[in-house]
TrEMBL record:
Domain of life where this protein originates: Eukaryota
Gene that produces this protein: TAP42
Biased composition range(s): Basic and acidic residues: 334-346, 356-369
InterPro entries, per database record: TAP42/TAP46-like_sf, TAP46-like
Organism field: [Candida] anglica
Disordered: annotated span: 238-266, 333-380
Name of this protein: Type 2A phosphatase-associated protein 42
Coiled coil region boundaries: none
């Protein structure tokens, strides 16, 4: 193996481990770096294939210890494609955000193929995959095209799924602690392996493959769920486009108001159809997805609409004040004013001769008390 390929691969892994430090995945900077990593990895993979380092009939014990790390090339490729948002490196825009859904489905399918290729290649060697991992691969009807249910819903019960997650977590934690030495190696410390023999180096790289196998199965589940969501979204968009193409123009576009449309309607309060002229359109009442955008009332009479359009917009009185008073009096809601007799009124105000005589007599009795005129009877 050429030293240039080894150093180039070590540099690639170092950059791969730092890719998530670049910020947003849909930014031009992130995608530009990701694109260059993809090109670099594909070139390394091409060199390794031309060198024919691995044989199907060759056991892992006979493989050069430093070559084992190249069995992870498809694993790295799967991870890069799972977050890649472009079709080719020429589409990178360094200052703009990238469309996250345009090529996402096709890139996820490439990531799925690469992850499966990685796991199948490991299955060809003994003592790398666990028994449960090998059984899961064997359960796929199509090894390179497992269904959503085969990847996500293959557990017999929730308890089995939880138990496998716990086992994988423990194994992943154990392997990660053992592989800290690889971080030094990938950070340009190529002398770190000089103190180990070949069997120790072999064991380190095999543990790395075991760790990657756990991540690969998790990645496949994530890819399957994301592809399912994108598939449902594509079906919905197709249904919407078919509905729009099958609808007549009158169903899609409201009529314009003008001299040829005197019985139009308006969806705005206190706005008549005369105010909508030229290219202006009525605001939509219902969206293309069937969602009501604003309240409206369905009516069957154009005459009612005309009255509302050309009316004052208010409820006006339908009778005069005099008519209203007569209506109130007729229904007993008001008391009618009593009309007095003028002749009786005069008698009540003018004093008669008899009353004057009585008043004069009362006044005299007040001035002459009883017994005041009997002077002779009191002389003593």
């Amino acid at each position: 193996m050429s030293d240039s390929v080894t150093s180039r691969f070590r540099s690639f892994v170092s950059d791969f481990n730092k890719i998530h430090e670049l910020g947003r995945k849909d930014s031009g900077k992130f995608q530009s770096k990701l694109s260059s990593l993809l090109v670099n990895l594909q070139q390394i993979q091409s060199f390794v294939q031309r060198l024919d380092l691995f044989s199907e009939n060759e056991p892992l014990d006979e493989v050069n210890a430093f070559y084992i790390q190249y069995l992870a090339l498809d694993y790295y490729l799967a991870n890069l494609y799972s977050i890649y948002l472009l079709k080719s490196s020429s589409e990178v825009a360094t200052s703009d955000l990238i469309n996250p859904t345009k090529y996402k489905s096709s890139n996820l399918k490439l990531a799925k193929q690469s992850a499966l290729q990685f796991l199948v290649s490991l299955q060809g060697y003994k003592n790398i995959l666990t028994k449960a991992q090998s059984s899961k691969l064997d359960s796929f009807k199509e090894i390179f095209n497992p269904t959503y249910d085969e990847l996500v819903s293959s557990y017999s019960s929730p308890q089995d799924k939880r138990a496998e997650k716990i086992e994988n977590y423990k194994l992943e934690k154990q392997l990660t602690s053992k592989l800290n030495i690889l971080n030094e190696y990938y950070n340009d410390d190529d002398q770190v392996f000089e103190k180990f023999d070949e069997e120790t180096i072999r064991a380190i790289y095999i543990d790395q493959l075991r760790l990657f196998s756990i991540s690969a199965f998790s990645l496949l589940e994530s890819i399957a769920m994301e592809l399912e969501v994108l598939s449902k979204q594509a079906e919905f968009e197709k249904m919407r486009e078919d509905r729009e193409s099958n609808s007549s123009p009158t169903d899609l576009k409201p009529e314009k108001y003008g001299p040829d449309n005197d019985y139009g309607y308006t969806t705005k309060i206190e706005q008549s159809h005369r105010s909508l002229q030229g290219s202006q359109k009525i605001p939509s009442l219902i969206s293309k997805q069937g969602k009501i955008l604003q309240p409206f009332t369905i009516t069957s009479g154009r005459q009612d609409i005309q009255k509302k359009v050309f009316g004052t917009g208010q409820v006006l009185p339908s009778m005069s004040v005099e008519e209203y008073l007569d209506y109130e009096l007729a229904n007993g809601k008001m008391a009618k004013e009593e009309v007095k007799d003028p002749s009786k009124d005069e008698d009540a105000t003018d004093d008669s001769d008899e009353e004057l005589e009585k008043r004069q007599w009362d006044d005299w009795k007040d001035d002459n008390p009883k017994g005041s005129g009997n002077t002779g009877g009191n002389i003593g």
